Amino acid sequence: MADTSDFRNGLIIKYKNEPYVIVEFQHVKPGKGGAFVRTSLKNLKTGRVLDNTFRSGEGVEIIRVERRKYQYLYRESAGLVLMDNETYEQLTVAESIIGDGQIYLKEGVEVELLLDDKDQIISAEIPIFVELKVTETEPGFRGNTASNTLKPAKVETGAKISVPLFINEGDILKIDTRTGEYLERVKN
To answer: Residues 91, 81: contact at Cβ < 8 Å?
Structure first.
């Protein structure tokens, strides 16, 4: 059992029977009363962030985790099929674990899974930026570049995003998977 003196950013603890990562912490020693630790905790399952205060020296349970890289293979009715990069074993992961970013996954993309000591998946992280090919969009017109006008486009994974008018079918785009926004056109 650890205590608040072991806190550091990125430490994963068990709080209210859920895994939380310490995003930020601050030791506070007021003039009156006992010292305490003010923390910002992020739930690894839901993504919710909450602020909490621990008394200095209060015991907490640290969760031992392992990060493993997997390669996304394909989607099936039971979920997403991933392959371990070291052992080549395949496993099926529920789509809810990866969340909304799954619509930007294409074959071969690396996914990082966070596993506890019982090999249960706590959370999954997909790359922040992906490069995807435009499969459908309306043709752009010359001279319409004076304003930041956007048009809808569909990429190879089926995701729909807004892109500038100069983007054409076949272009490869860099997309932010956190927001789903177009960042730039990638040169071949």
So the answer is: yes
**Per residue in 126-155, pLDDT tens?**
898 999 999 998 886 665 556 678 889 999
Instruction: Please give the structure tokens belonging to residue 77.
Output: 């009715």
- CATH superfamily membership of 65-125: Nucleic acid-binding proteins (2.40.50.140)
Distance of CA 179 to the CA centre of its chain: 11
What number does CATH give the domain 129-186?
2.40.50.140
pLDDT in tens, 63-98: 888 888 999 999 888 888 999 988 999 999 888 888
Question: What span, in angstroms and rounded, lies between the C-alpha atoms of 37 and 95?
Answer: 36
The pair of structure tokens assigned to 28 is 């506070």
> Do 152 and 119 contact (CB within 8 A), yes or no?
no
Tell me the one-letter amino acid at 85.
N
Exposure letters 58-92 (e unless 16+ CB within 10 A, then b): eebeebebeebebbbbeeeeebbbbeeeeeeeeee
Residues 129-161: b if buried by 16+ CB within 10 A, e if exposed = ebebebeebeebeeeeeeeeeeeebebebebeb
Has this prediction a pTM greater than 0.90? no
